[in-house]
Write a structure and sequence with these properties.
- The structure holds two protein chains of two kinds.
- Chain A is α/β, with parallel strands linked by helices.
- Chain A folds into four domains: 19-235, Pyruvate-ferredoxin Oxidoreductase, domain 3 (3-Layer(aba) Sandwich); 247-433, Rossmann fold; 440-514, no CATH class; 520-626, Rossmann fold (3-Layer(aba) Sandwich), CATH 3.40.50.
- In chain B, the strands form two sheets. Chain B has an eight-stranded mixed β-sheet, with helices on both faces. A three-stranded antiparallel β-sheet of chain B has the order 8-9-10.
- Chain B has two domains: 11-247 and 282-342, 3-Layer(aba) Sandwich (Rossmann fold), CATH 3.40.50; 248-281, no CATH class.
- By secondary structure, chain B is α/β, with parallel strands linked by helices.
- Chain B is built from eleven helices and twelve strands.
- Chain B has helices at 41-55, 90-100, 112-118, 120-129, 174-180, 194-206, 228-231, 233-239, 290-296, 318-332, 337-342; strands spanning 62-66, 81-84, 105-111, 133-139, 185-190, 211-216, 240-242, 250-251, 257-262, 265-270, 305-312, 347-349.
- The chains are: A alpha/beta, B alpha/beta.
- Chains A and B meet through helix 1, strand 9, helix 9, helix 11 and helix 12 of A and strand 1, strand 2, helix 2, helix 4 and helix 10 of B.
- Strand 9 of chain A pairs antiparallel with strand 12 of chain B.
């Protein structure tokens, strides 16, 4: 279904003057049962249709249902939207919707000074206040004086709106997120239609529930229109984006689409072996619903089996993929090493999360870089890539598949919780414009000589002659024992092990000849280079631009290829007096850069479970620039 | 001897046969075997090659996947495709392979440590899922490759290098594990009865679904004569029960004894005595695994040790279900990648 942008149906019907703003950031916060993720996603959809650029940041507890009203159970969804192109979901929200005291308590400190606060006053009962550790009611004790407040009876108004539909109390109260959403739609002049369409699509078979949600939405919108809310009616004009067809996409959705597209471009059967793990489970769940594309998903008994089945599928000539998060990578290490030794193509998706151990499963971090680089026994080089934005996950999957087959090697693609869950507008790619992906084994099957030997290598890539089972006369055995150069027989000779170790390393290094050089945004040499990788791209890009606007000359380079590094990287990092590497870890890329290039790179490191804050990073860049 | 078992599956309906008649040597690779002289693995290798030549499936359509251990060297010696993988994980690799390549016949070669200790989880699940792979567990009740530590099938109290005053743990019964895992084909044979072993291998290879075969295998270096009490030629007739589907469960030199149900399980009765009428007829296809479990628990010296196909039931495999889901969904739903990329809704920026 394609919808086109139409004028917001709420505009013009009200006496309150509309102010125009370039960019607004709104955060919805409530109990994890309050439907905040749903409200946020609907708002994002309406924003997309309206034509703003936007970026979202869902943040939820690992517990499915923490005790109602508790601080532990607060779930939030932030969306930033703009008339300009934006690269982050915003640092501080301008508007906070707090559905209960716990949500207010957890998120008030993030709200910009003088910001707009929309609270559900019905939820500020003595019981809920106590659960949120409020000694007195903040709505009446003056502690919110620095903010503009809309105290709305969201629960009672929503229940009243659906009064005659014969819903249970519980179901009637559940519509309060739609009431809040309607109110925020009025505040930001959004069109209700995309949400009304969605309600019909989602609840069409439950007409009563659909009607209740519709009414709550309208009631919230009308509440905004009829209540005297000074200086709160805001319009952010549509952004000027590159013309074309757009959709919204999250990082995990992009991984799914990337895999299906890669299977299409290679004409290989897609096999996805995975064990459910936050935040990678969605990839399994979404792929499982795409059987009509020939997708074989396999929910394994554990992480080891998940990668083992993917290796088996790959060995058989399918596109073998496994996906997980950091703890799963730890369990898969031995099997990934088998794929290194047997030199098989294999795609490993690592949607990183906060660690160590179970850590904070729903929070983001970039802390698996060194694990995927070095977390295996022996000298075990493989290719490592990292996506820089939700939409980029799609293109990096295609790159991972291209390199895995060209070099006959496992490739790890790093994403993280932030990319996985963040939504952004995405230009829909034209399938016919995508580069084809070559699968060399198809040619080898036809051209393999009579005296076929599985470890004969391509002179350019050093990729071995991988041929799946099934071809008469090419029978051979592979395995985890050291292989003899050329023949692939088991070998223990000292010279051979040295040679094979070197060949495996050299093969991965040669990938650098087949990937793009790193690009520099800003001066080609000079005082300060900010070097980033993975999901911090948006925050770093924003911070670098802000520092430039503050008068500092700063260059920015961003890495999507972590192993091997782009071939010009050593040269690039040596051309600046100072190199700053911001990361959501304690300095993993920095360690690699220092070790590889003997450059005294500085770190900007945050491990809070949240994406890097562009504002604080700007300060750090300016400070280092001044030093 | 030919085993009396349920009708043979037409292997060739799924896996292409060789064009000419093959013999044992066509399945043997030119790699020198490196097991200890006298190892039971030599016999198993020979019977595997013989059994497969009886099937006449083309060697290039076969893949042997193994884990780690003495037995797991097996793939090197077969003139088929093969992967000597990592400890305990062969069932996972074999599963992924078979599910994406239904045209291949996929074997797992494993041992008591590989399958029941480090790989226990995978064995359980590959059997439960009924992935169409043939699993041969060489049980020698010892860790041989690491030179003589006890294994999960070593007897309680067994003195080994890692249990100098005897083990303190009870062994697993591989057949019981397989049956409890809902295996659709469960059999046992042993290294020193080539005819029975060949027939059992052939039978397992023909099964449509996960096949599990325990092969009692002598390790003459670290656990010599582990099964000799009942597998030695001179005592076999008295101490082994050769199961044949549809035949009474008779054993003894003159088939003068049989198994009947007792209040607490199975009991031995005189085939010429008053309870002869109670002697059970073996039904490998019985859906409930109750009698099969009782057979699996029969152990020397109280009871005869069963050999042969204990259970063989036919039910769709994991791959059958998966492939039919794909077929049905392809028929029911649109599958246009361009459309998928566009998602549920898009908008135009002019």
């Amino acid at each position: 279904m394609t919808t086109t942008s139409t004028q917001a149906n709420g505009s013009g019907n009200t006496s309150a003057p509309i102010q125009e703003r370039d960019r607004v950031t709104v955060r919805f916060a409530g109990d994890s049962g309050d439907g905040m993720q749903l409200a946020g996603n609907r708002f994002a959809d309406a924003t997309a249709v309206f034509g703003n650029d936007f970026s979202t940041l869902p943040d939820f507890p690992a517990e499915i249902r923490a005790p109602a009203g508790s601080l532990a159970g607060v779930s939030s969804f932030q969306i930033s939207f703009s008339k300009h192109q934006i690269f982050t979901p915003g640092d501080e929200p301008d508007t906070l919707v707090a559905m209960n005291p716990a949500a207010l308590k957890s998120h008030l400190s993030a709200l910009t000074k003088g910001g707009l606060l929309v609270v559900n006053e019905d939820a500020f009962t003595s019981g809920n206040l106590k659960k949120a550790n409020y000694p007195s009611n903040p709505l009446s004790d003056g502690s919110l004086d620095g903010y503009r407040i809309i105290k709305a009876p969201i629960t009672t108004a929503a229940v009243a709106a659906v009064d005659d539909l014969g819903l249970s109390n519980q179901n009637a109260e559940r519509t309060k997120n739609f009431f809040a959403l309607g109110l925020v739609y009025w505040l930001y002049d959004r069109d209700l239609q995309p949400t009304l369409d969605w309600i019909e699509d989602r609840f069409g078979r439950l007409p009563n529930i659909a009607e209740a949600n519709r009414r709550a939405l309208y009631a919230g919108h009308a509440y905004g229109e009829t209540t005297e809310i000074a200086d709160a009616h805001v319009r952010v004009p549509p952004a000027v984006l590159k013309p074309g067809e757009y959709r919204t996409i999250t990082g995990n959705q992009a991984l799914v689409l990337g895999l299906i597209t890669a299977a299409h471009l290679t004409d290989l059967e897609l096999f996805y072996g995975s064990y459910p793990i936050t935040p990678a489970s969605d990839v399994l769940v979404e792929l499982a619903a795409l059987r009509e594309y020939g997708v074989r998903t396999f929910q394994a008994e554990d992480e080891i089996s998940a990668v083992g089945t993917a290796i088996g599928a790959s060995y058989g000539g399918a596109l073998g993929v496994t996906g997980t998060s950091g703890p799963g990578i730890a369990l898969k290490s031995e099997a990934i090493n088998l794929a290194v030794m047997t030199e098989l193509p294999l795609i490993v998706l690592d949607v990183q999360r906060s660690g160590p151990s179970t850590g904070m499963p729903t929070k983001t971090e970039q802390t698996d870089l060194l694990q995927v680089m070095f977390g295996r026994n022996g000298e075990s080089p493989l290719c490592v890539l990292a996506a820089k934005s939700p939409g980029d996950c799609f293109y990096m999957v295609l790159e991972a598949v291209r390199l895995a087959y060209q070099f006959v090697t496992p490739v790890v693609l790093l994403s993280d919780t932030y990319l996985a869950n963040t939504a952004e507008p995405w230009p829909v790619p034209d399938l016919n414009q995508l580069d084809p992906i070559d699968v060399p084994y198809r040619r080898l099957e036809q051209t393999a000589p009579e005296d076929f030997q599985p470890y004969v290598r391509d002179p350019d890539t050093l990729a071995r002659m991988f041929v799946p089972p099934g071809h008469a006369g090419l029978q051979h055995r592979i395995g985890g024992l050291e292989k003899s150069d050329i023949s692939g027989d088991v070998a223990y000779s000292p010279e051979n092990h040295q040679r094979m170790t070197n060949l495996r390393a050299e093969k991965i290094q040669r990938i650098a000849n087949f990937i793009p050089e790193v690009e520099i945004d800003g001066p080609e040499s000079g005082d300060l280079l900010v070097l980033s990788w993975g999901s911090t791209y948006g925050a770093v890009f924003t911070a670098v631009n802000d520092a430039r606007e503050a008068g500092h000359e700063v260059a920015h380079a961003h890495l999507q290829y972590l192993n091997p590094f782009p071939r010009n990287l050593g040269d690039v990092v040596s051309r600046y007096k100072k190199v700053l590497i911001p990361e959501a870890n304690t300095g993993q890329l920095r360690m690699l850069i220092r070790a590889n290039f003997l450059v005294d790179a500085k770190g900007y490191n945050e491990v809070t479970g949240q994406p890097l804050s562009a504002r604080q990073l700007t300060d750090a860049i300016i400070q280092l620039s001044n030093d | 001897m030919v085993l009396q078992t349920p009708p043979l599956e037409p292997v060739e309906s799924i896996i292409p046969l060789a064009e000419e008649d093959l013999n044992r040597k066509d399945y043997a690779s030119d790699v020198d075997t490196r097991w200890c002289p006298g190892c039971g693995d030599y016999s198993i290798l020979a019977q595997m090659q013989r059994g497969l030549s009886n099937l006449n499936v083309a060697p290039e359509k076969m893949v042997f996947v193994s884990g780690i251990g003495c037995s797991s060297r097996f793939p090197y010696y077969m003139n088929t495709y093969g992967m000597h993988s990592i400890h305990g994980r062969a069932p996972t690799i074999a599963s992924g392979l078979k599910l994406s390549r239904p045209d291949l016949m996929v074997f797992v070669i494993t041992g008591d440590g590989d399958a029941l200790s480090i790989g226990g989880n995978h064995l359980l699940h590959v059997l439960r899922r009924n992935v169409d792979v043939k699993i041969f567990l060489f049980n020698n009740r010892i860790y041989g490759l690491t030179k003589g530590q006890y294994s999960p099938t070593s007897e309680l109290g067994k003195v080994t290098k890692s249990s100098p005053v005897g083990t303190t743990e009870r062994p697993l019964n591989p057949l019981s594990v397989a049956l409890a895992s809902e295996a659709t084909f469960v059999a046992r044979s042993f290294d020193t009865d080539p005819q029975h072993l060949t027939a059992t291998i052939e039978r397992a290879a023909r099964h449509h679904g996960a096949a599990f075969v325990e092969i009692l295998q002598n390790c003459n270096i670290f656990n010599d004569r582990a099964f000799a009490d009942y597998t030695d030629r001179n005592v076999r007739d008295e101490r082994l029960l050769y199961l044949e589907h549809g035949q009474p469960m008779l054993f003894g030199e003159n088939k003068n004894k049989g198994l009947a149900v007792s209040a607490t399980g199975l009991r031995v009765v005189d085939a010429d005595g008053p309870d002869a009428g109670l002697i059970l007829t073996h039904d490998a296809t019985r859906p409930a695994p109750d009698v099969h479990q009782l057979l699996a628990r029969c152990a020397y010296p109280e009871m005869p040790v069963p050999m042969g196909v204990i259970r063989q039931v036919t039910t769709p495999t994991y791959g059958d279900y998966l492939d039919s889901q794909i077929e049905v969904q392809k028929f029911k739903n649109r599958h246009d990648v361009t459309q998928l990329l566009r998602g549920r809704s898009t908008w135009q920026v002019e």
